[in-house]
Amino acid sequence: MRALIRAGPSKTLTLDTNHPEPTSNNFPNSYIVKVKATALTREELIWPEPLESAIPIPGYDLTCIVTAVPQSTGPKVFKVGDEVYGLTNPHKQGNARDFAEVDERDLALKPRNLTWEEAAAVPLSALSAYQGLFIHGGLSIVGDGSNESKRVLVTAASGGVGIWAVQLAHQAGVHVTGTCGPSNIDFVKSLGADTVLDYRKTDLLTWVEEEPEQRSFDVVIDCIGGQTLADAWKCLKKDGRMISVAEPADLKKPANGIAEGVQSVWFIVEANHGQLSRITNMIEGGKCKAQVDQVFELEEWEAAFVQLESGHTKGKVVLKL
């Protein structure tokens, strides 16, 4: 089969057109799947976890068709022929290959109203936003009015995680403010953001300090890091939550100017069948949508990574198999 591998001492990317296929005998507790698409994540080539594999393969989001079920005894959630999608463990090989082996807990049924490429853009980003908001951010996922007075800031709101943080916070009944470039303002508004700031024209901290009682936030989902993260610390209310997906928030914590009781969380997103199934339901119900920046054939992987690392994507970069 074809596989995008990281070969040699420098782990240089190479397209291997004669890579061995996984078999159910080698992975008795995993499904074997035919990969249809995989989404790439910015800076994933410098993550330490994938390098634990003897032959690393990138791409941890995937959409696929089940071709073989686990040999282990007991009931199986999926059957041969099911169209599924998911997020696989970065400690294992990724999915930029024709066939892969995937744990049952990493998968959910693919949204019926999305293409293979659109669905591949969902799992890692949507689960990161879901866990940031509802597991670590203390918000209620149910739009029952309990979040009505809450305010959430999402930086880089047109990026992979930002898109989902805006949509999920909006669905939960939160007042959402997003930051983005001028070309994406209308797009971020269409996702459900109540206020959208053009970061090129509006300094976030200055904007909040103009009316701190009305503009400070209960939760920040920072997808940028650096100075933006440092400023965002000062934009939180008393007992607010700083959730950073770009870098550990404490690395950019200012020495002063932070409200009392503000806490930070740095977490690594985890695959979760139940959470991804709930996200699927929202997509099929028309409450959330996926966003693909650009689709490349597997053989165009070099151009895909150039686009990915440009820092100006709207949604995810996807490899089509």
Automatic annotation (TrEMBL):
Sequence ranges assigned to domain Enoyl reductase (ER) in this UniProt record: 8-319
Domain of life: Eukaryota
Region (Disordered): 1-22
One CC-aspect GO term: mitochondrion
GO molecular function, one term: oxidoreductase activity
Polar residues: bias regions: 11-22
Listed InterPro entries: ER, GroES-like_sf, NAD(P)-bd_dom_sf, YIM1/Zinc_Alcohol_DH_Fams
One Pfam family in the UniProt entry: ADH_zinc_N_2
PANTHER family per record: ALCOHOL DEHYDROGENASE RELATED, ENOYL REDUCTASE (ER) DOMAIN-CONTAINING PROTEIN
Protein name: NAD(P)-binding protein
